[in-house]
C-alpha cells in the first residue's frame, strides 16, 4: 500500500510517496534521491545509515518511512551550513584524515554532530561511547577521535 | 632494488605533506558517488538464489513459478548461461591462477553458492521470486577441513587441478642443508600453529550495475579494486572484445584485498541485463558479503626451528596448509606468497618449506590484506619469542640478532636493501625504554588484582608489489592543459587509502606545479591507461613511479615551449611552483599558464606524456610493540597501547600513511582476539554471517596508537624511495598481541583468535 508522507528534510518541507513497509533509509536514498546516507547492513548493526530525526540519532534502516510523518529529518546533505562553508566537523574530518573509504563517514558525522550538540566538551570516553554504534573498518578510529576533539574545541572557541 | 642509481634528494614542496584530499571533501559532504548510489532509468534489481546445502548435484531446477510471478523479468540457471570455465582471480600477468569455476554449474560446492538469478522490477519482488524457484539436489559427501579433504578417497570437489583436492601443486622451497643445520643446533623448537577465518568486512557491500547499449556494448559499474581485470574476464567469459566492455568505479567503500575477484553475481548481473535489455543492479546483503564474499584462508602450520645457545637461528623447517574453500580464487597466490615469505623475516640460511592449498566445501577464501603472510609470520614470530624464553634472553634482543639485514636474500630472490627492520625494532626499544619495561615491577595493582599486564613485539616485512608472482605494470598519463593546469589519468582504484592524492602529489612535485593545479581522472576503463589493480601495497610504488616518469617528460616539454617563448635555451630555465624562470635572471619568468597559453604567433597547446613502469620488488618493514591487559576472571584481553614503528621509505602523505597503519592494527586486533567467520563443521553452514555475531573491534575497543614512521630504508624502485604500507600493519600486530599475552599470564597461544574461553581454559590448566 502506497502512502504519502509529509516531513521536513534538512529544513525543507517534502513529501514522499512510499510503500508502507519501506524503510526511511530506502525512501531517502531511492525516493528522495539523498544518497549520502549509506546502507552497510540494512539491519541496524553498522550505523552507516545514521540520520537525526527530531533531534535524536536514528538508524534509518530500522525506521519505517511512514513513521517519519510530520517529523524533522537531518541527513549528511544538510550538515553544511552554506554552499561554500563546511561544518567544523566536516573540516576537522578532512584535516585529520578521519575519512578513508568514507562509507561510514556520513553516519559518523551525524552521530558526532549529535554528540557535540548535546555535550560540547566531550571526554575521550564520551566520544568512544558516542560512536559505539558506528562501525568504521578503515581508520582504527584514532583519527576520527582526533577530528571530533578538534571540532569540539573549534566550536567552543567560535561560541565564546 | 630495481635500479642502482642513488635516490634523488630534493627540497620537497608537496611530497611529505598531508595535503587536502579531494576525495575526502566529497565524502564529508555526502556527495561522493559509490556504485550503489547510481540509479539508471528503467533499472531492474537482481537477486541470487543460494543453495542450502554444501555439496550436491542439481537434479532439476524449476523456475516456471518464478518466471510467472508479476514483476519478474528474467531468471537464469545453469541451463541458460554460457558454460565457460574461468578464473576467480584473473591477474592477467600471472600464471598462478586455477580455472575452476563456471558462472552457474549443475553442481553446488559450498553452502550459499548461487544456483539461479532473478531480475525483477523491485528488490522485494526479486527476493520473493527466489522462494518460488524449486531445486532438487542429489547430496554429495562434503568435506569441511583440509585434513579431511586431503585424505585419500575423500570426495573430490573439482575435476580440474592437480587432484587430491589440491588447488595447486605443493609449493616447495629448499635452501642450504637443513638436516645438517638441525644436527648442529644447540636446541630445537617444534610446534603447530593455526589461524581462523577473518573476514574483511568492508563497509560497502558488493554491488554492481550492468547496462547494454544498442551496439552490444556493456557498461558495468562495480565496486572493484581491479577494474581492468573485471573488463578482461567479463569480456573473455561473455565472448566480447575488450572494447565492448566498459567498467566504471568512482568511490569504493573499502575492499582490503577482497574486492579483486570476479564474482559470480557480476557475471549474472551482466547476463540478466542482456536478457532483459534493461539495466540491472545487484547489491549484496550484509549476509551475502560473508557467504559469497571472500575471507582470509584458515591455515595450519607445523614449524620447527634450530638455534644456537646465543640465540642465533640456524635452521627452519615449515609446512603450511591453507584452506581455499570451494574455489581456487587467490589460493595459489596466497600459498606461494605466504610460504616463500617464510624464507625471510628472521635470517636463516637453511630453510625447507612446503605450502599446500586445499579445496573444502566452505565459502571461498581469497585475497585479504596480509595475503598468506599474516598466517606464516604469526607462527615465525611467536616461535622466536619461545626461543628467547628458552635461553632466558630478552625476545627483543633475540629478534634484533636475527632480523633480516641489507644484502640478505628476500622472498622474491632479491637482496634486501637497507636495515629497515633492525632500525624499526631498535627505534621502538629506545622510545619505550624496552629494558625497563621488561624489568618492571609485575605485582598486580592491588585494586585490580585480576588484571595482568604484558608487553609483546611482532615483526614483519612485506613487498610493495606482487613480483615475482605477477609481473606488474604501472601506467600513468599526464596532460598539461592550455591554462597550465594538469590532468593525471590513472587506472588505480580509489579504495579510500588516499592513493589518488599521493599520485597527484608526485606529479605536482616532479613537474613543479602547485598540488591544487593537478586534477585526477580515474575509474573508467575506456578513458584511463590500463592498470593491474590496487593490491599488494603497490599503488604508490608502482603507479607513483609511472606518474613521476610521465611528469618528467611533460616537464621537459613545458620547459622547451617556455624556452622558445622566452627565447632562451631550455637548459637555462627552471620550473618551480608553477613558475618558469631564467636561472641567471630570476626576475625574468613566466607562469606555466603563460607558457601553455597562446601568444603572438604561437597557438595554445596541450602537452601529454605517458609513463610505464615494470618494477621488481621492494620491502617495507615494521615492528609493533603492544601492551595488553588480561582479565584473569573473564578471560578478556584488552589491547591498551600499540606503538607501531614502520619503515615505508619516503612518505608521500603522512596522515594517509598513518591512517593505513591504524586501520591495519584495528583489523589485526580483530583477527587475533575476536574475529572468526565460523562455518559449521557438520553442515557447512555459516554461523555468524552478520556484523553483530562477527565481532570486530569498534570505538570502545581501540587502544591508543602512537604511530612512528621512519624513512629508514628508501627504495630506488619507488618515487623518491617510497614503498608500500597497506598490508604491513595487519601482519605485525597479531604476534605482538600473542607475545604480550604470554608476557602477562605466562601462557603461550599458537592460534588466532585467542578467545576469552581459551584464556580461561589455559589459566585453569596452568593452575592445575
Ligand atoms: S544500514 Fe542501518 S545500521 Fe547498517
Ligand atoms: S572510512 Fe571506511 S569504513 Fe570508515
From TrEMBL, chain A:
Q: Name one GO molecular function term.
A: 2 iron, 2 sulfur cluster binding
Q: Where does the record locate the signal sequence feature?
A: none
Q: Which Gene3D superfamilies match?
A: 3.10.20.30, [2Fe-2S]-binding domain
For this UniProt record, give its keywords in alphabetical order, as a comma-separated list.
2Fe-2S, Iron, Iron-sulfur, Metal-binding, Oxidoreductase
Q: One of this protein's Pfam families, by short name?
A: Fer2_2
Q: Can you tell which superkingdom this protein's organism belongs to?
A: Bacteria
Q: Which residues form the 2Fe-2S ferredoxin-type domain?
A: 3-79
Q: Which InterPro entries match?
A: 2Fe-2S-bd, 2Fe-2S-bd_dom_sf, 2Fe-2S_ferredoxin-like_sf, 2Fe-2S_ferredoxin-type, 2Fe2S_fd_BS, Beta-grasp_dom_sf, Diverse_Oxidoreductases
Under what name is this protein listed? Answer: (2Fe-2S)-binding protein
Give the species.
Aminobacter anthyllidis
From TrEMBL, chain B:
Q: Which Pfam families match?
A: Ald_Xan_dh_C (PF01315), MoCoBD_1 (PF02738), MoCoBD_2 (PF20256)
Q: Which InterPro entries match?
A: Ald_Oxase/Xan_DH_a/b, Ald_Oxase/Xan_DH_a/b_sf, Ald_Oxase/xanthine_DH-like, AldOxase/xan_DH_MoCoBD1, AldOxase/xan_DH_MoCoBD2, AldOxase/xan_DH_Mopterin-bd_sf
List the signal peptide residues. Answer: none
Q: Where is the Aldehyde oxidase/xanthine dehydrogenase a/b hammerhead domain?
A: 29-141
GO MF term set: iron ion binding; oxidoreductase activity
Membrane-spanning residues where? none
Query: What name appears for this protein in its UniProt entry?
Result: Xanthine dehydrogenase family protein molybdopterin-binding subunit
Taxonomic source organism: Aminobacter anthyllidis
Amino acid at each position: 500500500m502506497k502512502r504519502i508522507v509529509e516531513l521536513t528534510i534538512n529544513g525543507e518541507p517534502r513529501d514522499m510517496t512510499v510503500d508502507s513497509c519501506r524503510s526511511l533509509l530506502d525512501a531517502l536514498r531511492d525516493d528522495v534521491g539523498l544518497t549520502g546516507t549509506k546502507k552497510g547492513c540494512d539491519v541496524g548493526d553498522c550505523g552507516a545509515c545514521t540520520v537525526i530525526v527530531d533531534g535524536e540519532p536514528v538508524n534509518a534502516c530500522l525506521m519505517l518511512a511512514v513513521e517519519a510523518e510530520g517529523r524533522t529529518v537531518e541527513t549528511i546533505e544538510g550538515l553544511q551550513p552554506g554552499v561554500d562553508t563546511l561544518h567544523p566537523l566536516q573540516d576537522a574530518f578532512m584535516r585529520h584524515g578521519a575519512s578513508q573509504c568514507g562509507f561510514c563517514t556520513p553516519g559518523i558525522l551525524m552521530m558526532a554532530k549529535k554528540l557535540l550538540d548535546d555535550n560540547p566538551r566531550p571526554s575521550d570516553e564520551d566520544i568512544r561511547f558516542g560512536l559505539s554504534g558506528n562501525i568504521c573498518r578503515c581508520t582504527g578510529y584514532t583519527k576520527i577521535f582526533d577530528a571530533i576533539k578538534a571540532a569540539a574545541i573549534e566550536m567552543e572557541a567560535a561560541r565564546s | 632494488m630495481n635500479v642502482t642509481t642513488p635516490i634523488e634528494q630534493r627540497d620537497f614542496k608537496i611530497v611529505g605533506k598531508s595535503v587536502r584530499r579531494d576525495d575526502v571533501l566529497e565524502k564529508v559532504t555526502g556527495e561522493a558517488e559509490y556504485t550503489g548510489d547510481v540509479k539508471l532509468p528503467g533499472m531492474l534489481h537482481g537477486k541470487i538464489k543460494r543453495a542450502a546445502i554444501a555439496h550436491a548435484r542439481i537434479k532439476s531446477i524449476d523456475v516456471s513459478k518464478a518466471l510467472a510471478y508479476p514483476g519478474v523479468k528474467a531468471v537464469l540457471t545453469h541451463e541458460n548461461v554460457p558454460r565457460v570455465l574461468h578464473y576467480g582471480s584473473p591477474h592477467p600477468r600471472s600464471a598462478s591462477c586455477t580455472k575452476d569455476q563456471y558462472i552457474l554449474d549443475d553442481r553446488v560446492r559450498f553452502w550459499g553458492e548461487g544456483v539461479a538469478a532473478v531480475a525483477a522490477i523491485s528488490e522485494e519482488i526479486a527476493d520473493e521470486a527466489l522462494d518460488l524457484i524449486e531445486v532438487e539436489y542429489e547430496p554429495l559427501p562434503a568435506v569441511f577441513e583440509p585434513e579431511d579433504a586431503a585424505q585419500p578417497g575423500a570426495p573430490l570437489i573439482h575435476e580440474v587441478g592437480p587432484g587430491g583436492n589440491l588447488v595447486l601443486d605443493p609449493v616447495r622451497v629448499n635452501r642450504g642443508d637443513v638436516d645438517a643445520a638441525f644436527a648442529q643446533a644447540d636446541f630445537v623448537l617444534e610446534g603447530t600453529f593455526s589461524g581462523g577465518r577473518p573476514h574483511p568486512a568492508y563497509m560497502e557491500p558488493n554491488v554492481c550495475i550492468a547496462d547494454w547499449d544498442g551496439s552490444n556494448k556493456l557498461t558495468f559499474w562495480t565496486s572493484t579494486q581491479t577494474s581492468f581485470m573485471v573488463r578482461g574476464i567479463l569480456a573473455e567469459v561473455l565472448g566480447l572484445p575488450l572494447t565492448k566492455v566498459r567498467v566504471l568505479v568512482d568511490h569504493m567503500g573499502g575492499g582490503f584485498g577482497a574486492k579483486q575477484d570476479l564474482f559470480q553475481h557480476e557475471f549474472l548481473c551482466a547476463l540478466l541485463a542482456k536478457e532483459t535489455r534493461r539495466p540491472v543492479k545487484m547489491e549484496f546483503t550484509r549476509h551475502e558479503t560473508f557467504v559469497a564474499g571472500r575471507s582470509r584462508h584458515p591455515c595450519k602450520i607445523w614449524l620447527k626451528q634450530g638455534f644456537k645457545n646465543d640465540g642465533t637461528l640456524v635452521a627452519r623447517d615449515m609446512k603450511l596448509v591453507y584452506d581455499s574453500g570451494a574455489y581456487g580464487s587467490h589460493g595459489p597466490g596466497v600459498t606461494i606468497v605466504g610460504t616463500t615469505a617464510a624464507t625471510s623475516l628472521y635470517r636463516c640460511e637453511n630453510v625447507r618449506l612446503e605450502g599446500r592449498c586445499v579445496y573444502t566445501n566452505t565459502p571461498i577464501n581469497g585475497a585479504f590484506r596480509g595475503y598468506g603472510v599474516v598466517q606464516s609470520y604469526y607462527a615465525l614470530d611467536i616461535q622466536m619469542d619461545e626461543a628467547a624464553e628458552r635461553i632466558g634472553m630478552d625476545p627483543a634482543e633475540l629478534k634484533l640478532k636475527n632480523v633480516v639485514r641489507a644484502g640478505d636474500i628476500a622472498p622474491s630472490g632479491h637482496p634486501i636493501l637497507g636495515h629497515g627492520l633492525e632500525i624499526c625494532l631498535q627505534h621502538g626499544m629506545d622510545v619505550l625504554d624496552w629494558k625497563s619495561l621488561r624489568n618492571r615491577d609485575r605485582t598486580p595493582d592491588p585494586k585490580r588484582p585480576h588484571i595482568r599486564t604484558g608487553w609483546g613485539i611482532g615483526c614483519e616485512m612485506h613487498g610493495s608489489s606482487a613480483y615475482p608472482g605477477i609481473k606488474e605494470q604501472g601506467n600513468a598519463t599526464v596532460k598539461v592543459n592550455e591554462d597550465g593546469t594538469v590532468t593525471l589519468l590513472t587506472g588505480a582504484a580509489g579504495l579510500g587509502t588516499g592513493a589518488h592524492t599521493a599520485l597527484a602529489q608526485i606529479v605536482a612535485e616532479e613537474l613543479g606545479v602547485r598540488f591544487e593545479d593537478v586534477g585526477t581522472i580515474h575509474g573508467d576503463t575506456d578513458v584511463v591507461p590500463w592498470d593491474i589493480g590496487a593490491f599488494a601495497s603497490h599503488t604508490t610504488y608502482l603507479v607513483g613511479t609511472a606518474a613521476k616518469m610521465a611528469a618528467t617528460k611533460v616537464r621537459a616539454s613545458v620547459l622547451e615551449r617556455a624556452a622558445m617563448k622566452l627565447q632562451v635555451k631550455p637548459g637555462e630555465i627552471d620550473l618551480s611552483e608553477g613558475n618558469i624562470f631564467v636561472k641567471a635572471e630570476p626576475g625574468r619568468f613566466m607562469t606555466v599558464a603563460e607558457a601553455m597559453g597562446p601568444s603572438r604567433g604561437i597557438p595554445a597547446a596541450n602537452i601529454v606524456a605517458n609513463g610505464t613502469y615494470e618494477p621488481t620488488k621492494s620491502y617495507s618493514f615494521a615492528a609493533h610493540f603492544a601492551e595488553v591487559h588480561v582479565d584473569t576472571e573473564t578471560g578478556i584481553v584488552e589491547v591498551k597501547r600499540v606503538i607501531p614503528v614502520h619503515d615505508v621509505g619516503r612518505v608521500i602523505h603522512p596522515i594517509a600513511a598513518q591512517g593505513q597503519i591504524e586501520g591495519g592494527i584495528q583489523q589485526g586486533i580483530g583477527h587475533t582476539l575476536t574475529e572468526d567467520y565460523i562455518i559449521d563443521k557438520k553442515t557447512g553452514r555459516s554461523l555468524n554471517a552478520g556484523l553483530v555475531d562477527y565481532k570486530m573491534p569498534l570505538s570502545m575497543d581501540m587502544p591508543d596508537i602512537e604511530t612512528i614512521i621512519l624513512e629508514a630504508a628508501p627504495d630506488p624502485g619507488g618515487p623518491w624511495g617510497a614503498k608500500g604500507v597497506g598490508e604491513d600493519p595487519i601482519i605485525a600486530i597479531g604476534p605482538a598481541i600473542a607475545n604480550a599475552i604470554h608476557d602477562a599470564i605466562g601462557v603461550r597461544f599458537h592460534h588466532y583468535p585467542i578467545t576469552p574461553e581459551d584464556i580461561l581454559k589455559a589459566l585453569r590448566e596452568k593452575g592445575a
